[in-house]
Fold this protein.
Amino acid sequence: MLADDQMKLKGKIIVKLFGEGTKSEHHAVYIDTAEGSYVLRKKGANPFESPDLKQMEGKEVTVEGTLDKYVFFAHIIEEK
Amino acid sequence: MATKIILTIKQNLEEKYGTKFPDLEKLLTALIAADQKKGIETQVIYLDKELSTFSEKDCKDAVDNLYKKYTPDYLMIFGAQDIVPFQELDNPLFTPESDSDQFIQSDLPYASESPYSNDCNSFTNPTRVIGRLPDLPGKGDLGYVKILINNIIKSKPISSKRPPDYFAVSASVWEKSTEQSINNIFGNIKKLLESPPAKGKYTADLLYPAFHFFNCHGGLNDTNYYGQKATSYPVALSAADLNHKITYGTVVAAECCYGAQILDKAEYGISIASNYLLNNALSFMGSSTIAYGPADGQGLADLICQYYLININNGASAGRAMLEARQRFLTESAPDLDPYELKTIAQFYILGDPSLQLIKPISTKSTFNTIENRRFNLVTKGLNLGAGISKTIKVEERPVASNYNEILSILKQADFNNDQQEMVFEVESSKENLFPKNLNFMGISPIENKVRFRVFQKEVYIKAPIRKIKTLVVKEINNQILGWKTYVSR
């Protein structure tokens, strides 16, 4: 059972440009779900570099964590 | 005697601090006594009686009512966003693909006479000297509040050094822009660090200067700033780097995205801004959301941050330094603000007591140098700015450009193609009050025609896989081009 603020999402890992034209612009990892795309970040990880997540590009995953604005902070990422 | 009101919400504090709430009230009482000795008459006013709900609108209305009642020289909001909410303004640049901030968490509306609104355009008339002394969001931490208030109590302005000593870090890719900022503020770039190679874990000696400046990356709910060189983003500063190493009285300006966010420590760890204050900094100025700078030279975040530090070094209180920085930024941007300028003015705020004077001003014998005269001038200037700045609104149905060939020429000059994504913003005319009805300017009636901003974004492939984006803003009226500029791609 998930805690109140915890969510589980299913989707595909994609990499695309985040923050075009801003000071935050970089290639970010997203989870693309039926409800929308969210930046995917492991809690406490560098938001600009995520080589381990980038290696999962194209894979279908299930993630658990919290959603704040446009970022999903995951503590569990499992490949299907 | 100068006057200060501290505004907060008692019910939220009681719920957060429980049995320790009376101890918190004692700290505020001690602050009032210390202010009295410094010549400031301070009152703590609970907003609760003015509120039917704790909504942003009710808080804005209550602050406005109390400001009008007391007309204080300084207004300090006490508490993080879970005590007194930020005002969430609509982000004019919001698009999921580019600027992901749907809202801008802002204290700017509290600095303005305009009534509650979600529209940044409503608050281009700042007149109030305000700041926010935040506690930590989430679980009440009285020890944190005690350190911050005791630091305020013992503060005394220090003599200005010319040039002032500083600690500054820039993402390597923004070196040229940061050099200009640092030169403008401090008169030299001798101590500017680039990241990489700088990777945090600085010595106390390096961190010793009273002025700190950052032009780095920052991320939502993240406790680091990051440098950049090509596709490498090393940590340029970690919140933990500050522990026990910051000189009492330090003042900080951070251009970084989310540079001044205040985080729930239990959820994400203590933010850089909160940890600076915990480690004896007295004022922190930064952004709540994604920030911008120009592609070349100076603009937006560069400007408002450097104005703030320059004003501090000239002896302004932290709150006045911020108000004057906002007004100068608006003066330079007026009369027609592009959407990037609108977001910038809304997103930067200060954390710390706004009445603190960190640097002794150079003494003058001018009889005009009174707090009454300064406040009168700031109010007048703010209201005039608001009256002269029109609203900039995004147009959903983009008008066809009959000056298409001219725009193509600009796109070419700026090294853009003609297939870039375009957003259009129009400035709602408020010029009826300014211009005589029969005035024509360059053969165009400024009353009958709207200023328009066409915003283009372009990907620039430097060297695969490195990709950057350049933004072009073209300003026009009645299809006549008035000018253009490029922003970012940082």
